[in-house]
Design brief:
alpha+beta; two-stranded antiparallel ribbon; five-stranded mixed beta barrel; elongated; single chain
Length: 128
């Protein structure tokens, strides 16, 4: 009965909520394994959500779509650069830095590092 009461109260609050009453969720991700490279700026990683740096909130592994911050579209070179990026980071552990969620789109943007290499800056050097 207590659980049902909690759900009923939650549903009442949800009925009253507006966009301005909410905040964008940004998961606390410290690092993850690269599962897919979709483009020179889009990757899929596996990671856990952390509360602080050590305590795991849920032991589950989640998939996250990360857009690499400040990486432009390369146009005709997209496929070539995606292949190079795939060789570099696929199935490797990357460190996530300066992550944020875009307020309107809820897309996650971040910088990633592989063994100390700033992958975002590396990609930008290929663009020039």
């Amino acid at each position: 009965m207590l659980f049902r009461s909690f759900i009923e109260e939650d549903l009442k609050q949800l009925m009253k909520v507006s966009y301005q009453d909410t905040v964008t969720f940004t998961p606390n991700i410290q690092y993850g394994k690269v599962l897919r490279v979709l483009s020179p700026r889009d990757i899929i990683i596996a990671s856990r959500i952390y509360n602080g740096y050590t305590k795991v909130l849920k032991p589950k592994l989640y998939r996250f779509h990360i857009i690499l911050s400040n990486i432009p579209y390369f146009g005709v070179k997209d496929d070539e650069i995606r292949e190079e990026l795939t060789k570099m980071i696929l199935n490797n552990i990357v460190v996530i830095n300066n992550m944020y969620t875009h307020a309107e789109s809820n897309m996650i943007f971040a910088e990633i590092y592989l063994n100390g290499l700033d992958v975002n800056n590396f990609l930008l050097s290929l663009y020039e």
